[in-house]
């Protein structure tokens, strides 16, 4: 596929498939291998940074004219691929998380606090539950009514009184704005769409110790500073449209990202809705067809559709979580 850029000539454009970046975690497991077939360095891998321009785990393009390019460099030097979008950093990050054990109870700052105190964006995120073992649950919100009560309950370790726990199942979706106290529980496999930030403030970590016998650092004061009090439970306006046997579910349209589920049963034709599109296969197999070219898709396949790609089709039996930059 080609398109013309003034003063640049003809540029080859095709989907940008990205190599996964694995992150070892104290709570990680091996489902990124058993479910998605990734070759893991060990059995404590908690995260696949599937699409990332963040310096803590930058994706590398695996195909086409930009093969070998890092996503952050591509963003800096070929902004035309992203509709000449503004911003110093690639704004989105897609992860797959394998919670073999409970993640810490945590909270993320908004942009203003993150930029002032950490030098990077805040972190609003959302979760699609790929799978969950029976009895799995998440921490989602808290019961403190004032910031003073929040600090007191944290100080006194009143976790059962403070934290709201919600059972989850495969196919659930949650919006987690900055300021939301949250934790992914053990036995859950998640696709996370988030701002490109790695700032996490730990509220509580179950007094766990690492291999050296040290407890992980907590960030109590920062957590109290940035937590939304009282807690807010966002109302989702989920919309589903059928396309033959296939369907499109719109989960979120926010200032940070718009998130969709594409359930492909046979064929699904799609048209560009954002400056560029991120997509990750969470289940099943099929093909992505762009300008007459066919690309095989399997669980864990992740790519970016650059701005010049206006239409595409999906064939097979698969579920994909897709996102575009915020409205």
From TrEMBL:
- UniProt keywords, alphabetically: Isomerase, Metal-binding, Zinc
Q: Which enzyme type, at the first EC level?
A: isomerase
| InterPro entries linked to this entry | Carb_Metab_Reg_Kinase/Isom (IPR051804), Man6P_Isoase-1 (IPR001250), Man6P_isomerase_Firm_short (IPR014628), MPI_cupin_dom (IPR049071), PMI_typeI_cat (IPR046457), RmlC-like_jellyroll (IPR014710), RmlC_Cupin_sf (IPR011051)
Under Pfam families, the record lists: MPI_cupin_dom, PMI_typeI_cat
Cofactors named for this entry: Zn(2+)
Tell me which EC number(s) this protein carries. Answer: 5.3.1.8
Q: Which domain of life is it from?
A: Bacteria
- A molecular-function term among this protein's GO annotations: mannose-6-phosphate isomerase activity
- Pinpoint the Phosphomannose isomerase type I catalytic domain residues: 17-117
Quick check: keyword DNA-binding in the entry?
Answer: no
Is Methyltransferase a UniProt keyword of this protein? no
Give the Mannose-6-phosphate isomerase cupin domain ranges: 248-324
Tell me what reaction this enzyme catalyses.
D-mannose 6-phosphate = D-fructose 6-phosphate
Q: Which PANTHER family does the UniProt entry name for this protein?
A: FRUCTOKINASE, TRANSCRIPTIONAL REPRESSOR MPRA
The family assignment reads: Belongs to the mannose-6-phosphate isomerase type 1 family.
Q: Which protein is depicted?
A: Mannose-6-phosphate isomerase
Q: Which organism is it from?
A: Candidatus Enterococcus moelleringii
Q: Which gene encodes it?
A: manA
